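Database export, one record per block. Field names are fixed; values are copied verbatim from the stored entry.
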Amino acid sequence: MKMLKSTLAVVTAAAVLGVSGFAQAGATLDAVQKKGFVQCGVSDGLPGFSVPDATGKILGIDADVCRAVAAAVFGDATKVKFSQLNAKERFTALQSGEIDILSRNTTMTSSRDAGMGLKFPGFITYYDGVGFLANNKLGVKSAKELDGATICIQAGTTTELNVSDYFRANGLKYTPITFDTSDESAKSLESGRCDVLTSDKSQLFAQRSKLASPKDYVVLPETISKEPLGPVVRNGDDEWLAIVRWVGYALLNAEEAGVTSKNVLDEAKSTKNPDVARLLGADGEYGKDLKLPKDWVVKIVSQVGNYGEIFEKNLGKSTPLEIDRGLNALWNNGGIQYAPPVR
């Protein structure tokens, strides 16, 4: 009897936390609707992805993904609150229920998706890879010239293993210095405590933009890993998983269809394209399957933009980061961003 009670207690606790398959479907959506906002976990300050402006408003592509979820659920992209988290804090905050969604430049891996009580919906916000940022004074042109280097690394990230694998595979030695935050890592590079800074390349561009003399630093050409970055939710709530997944896909489908924040309202009223009509709710009831209104995609795009608009506003050539779309271009424009259809 004691064993049975103990087992039931574990099952009940897991269901409450949502860290196993026992969580009731719809629990997250119900809780979000009841409190009136989406609680979103973002980085502790990464330009282009999630960083506060002078007024304290969180800006960036990761933050905009959460705004898109809020627009779909509430019809209002402003109904979101942000929790700034470092790499060590992020998963615990999601597992414990402190946040509803983690949208924080987080790499999808098998162990994270299957072994931590978490689920990656599958929408990739940004296809990235680990690289190296070096001071021009170091005089290196390639990562293969870094034998014996001291390297700044943010703790609790996939970068630690990737760098170890790369140096071992190439017969190189290095000395790692780990820090809890990306800003600490960047400051240590700037002060000369380490020779190079390693992280996802997008983060390197972001950190370089914050240095006193960005032009004194170069991102080396090598990309040593695959880092598909995307949002994360708790395991056990398929309904919320589907909502986050299809919000991401809606952003991509809107861009592919040429639907933008400027024309979406007109397209919803007058489009002759069957795919666009289904996407925007003019034909069919495809929002119902997600427990969302017919015009959920209209709400997203009109208030937040399509994927291309969000990318260019936060990361593109008009920003200090000046990042090319590259792999993050649509599949029909030289990249690998591809979304299943709404139908």
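Remark 1: The radius of gyration is 21 Å.
Remark 2: Residues 238-256 form the longest helix (19 residues).
End of record.
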